[in-house]
Design goal:
With about 110 residues, the chain is an alpha+beta fold. Helix content is about 20%, strand content about 35%. The strands form two sheets. Strands 2-5-1-6 form a four-stranded antiparallel sheet, covered by helices on one side. Strands 3-4 form a two-stranded antiparallel ribbon. A hairpin with a 2-residue loop joins strand 3 and strand 4. It starts with a strand and ends in an 18-residue tail after the last strand.
């Protein structure tokens, strides 16, 4: 099992959820977060005064999936969320040792379905 964690632009979430549903995924967790990457925020101008916004709104999605689904789902995330501009986001993939469904006690891939 793997955990796919993607930091994306908030406006991409609705389209991404729809596309993930088409290819099939076991479940999704969504968090609204703030942060910045290499660009260290953005500068804005308001009424002639320039100010810097260091922490930009982002959305974090997390999926725990079978190893066989990783490539398919990361391809969908990349395709939907890529604009070609700075700030499109990142995808992180980590190993998951086990999963347990609390209700039934199922473990492993069976707990994901």
């Amino acid at each position: 099992m793997k955990k796919i964690e993607a930091i994306i632009r908030p406006d991409a979430l609705a389209v991404l959820r729809s596309e993930l549903e088409k290819v099939g995924y076991p479940g999704i967790m969504v968090s609204e977060i703030k942060g910045h990457g290499k660009q260290r925020g953005v500068s804005h101008q308001w009424r002639g005064t320039e100010y810097k916004e260091y922490f930009l709104p982002k959305t974090r999605i997390e999926l725990i999936v079978a190893d066989s689904q990783v490539k398919k789902l990361t391809d969908v995330i990349t395709e939907v969320c890529r604009t070609g501009s700075v700030g499109d986001g990142k995808i992180f993939i980590t190993a998951v040792a086990d999963a347990i469904r609390i209700r039934t006690g199922e473990t492993g891939d069976g707990a994901l379905a």
